[in-house]
Amino acid sequence: MNGNKLPSHIKRISFALCVILTFGCGRKYPIPPESQYGMPPEESYVLVDEWPDDNSYELHDIMDVIVGKDGFIYVVTANNLYKLFENGQLDRILVTGFSSAAAVDQDILRHIYVVDDEIVKMFDRTGSLLYSFEDTTLVTPSGIASDGETIFISDMYRNLVLSYDSSGTIVDTVASYGAGILNVAAPHDLCIWYDRIFVVSTAHNWVEAITIDTPRANLLHLGGTTHDGDTLPGYFINPVDVAVDDSGYVYVADAGNSRIQKFDRYGNFVIEVELTDTPISVACSHDGKTLYVGFNNRIEKYRRPERPSQPQ
């Protein structure tokens, strides 16, 4: 047999295979090319509601807004604590008669904490007082957070973040001005996410996260490397509040720039939400799809646009 020639039946099979591979079984559509930048950039959140929008309740002197571990929205004003459904309807006024409440938090056991002047109060979900303690050294408490065991309080006037046990005994100084693992100036609100606590250092124009457990270590820094502040994305002017969703996205109320800025868990800037007024507080739903922004006498609800499903 000549080594340079193929038998005729093998030639026919080879030709048929070429036809099949060339034309396939029916018409083929090309796969759409991927964007050279990957996924399209996230769209900004859209204003969808404003509360209160009826006469069922009034809000004055809002100090803090959170989405509780139970999914309800808790709003503390200077004198009252409100519990709202996610549509803004009033569930109940949980507590009245605060003298000068500053901040609210809910731990994983659904206990609710409010710092009111020099007094820290813990309530159950019905608003019944479980216990309280007083620290007469507090001057201007501005934030509170608890992991169910330790209570953290920021004192804006004294440039301190302190931790307490349930009896009111100071465990340690978490942050102070110009010293320690975390340098703060006029610290505002606090937020706990798993093993870390976020601290808003308002006069430093940045937000930082450190480990809850000691010895503490810095885990994340948001904002510039100086205290000047800026209007650029990723920078702040007088930030006042921070919230974190279940996926680790971080939301900062940037009061001086009248916006909410969103970052991923690694500190990368994602998107900003422009506001028409100066925010006092920000809270987010657990899935990160909804933002609740507190102003002096109202709450604005923002929703993240849903992306269309990607082609398979």
From TrEMBL:
**The entry's keywords:** Repeat
Per its UniProt record, what SUPFAM superfamilies does this chain match?
NHL repeat
Query: Which sequence ranges are marked TM in the entry?
Result: none
Cross-referenced PROSITE patterns: NHL (PS51125), PROKAR_LIPOPROTEIN (PS51257)
The UniProt entry annotates NHL repeats at 238-266
Q: Where is the signal peptide?
A: none
Pfam families attached to this UniProt entry:
NHL
- State what protein this is by name: SMP-30/Gluconolactonase/LRE-like region domain-containing protein
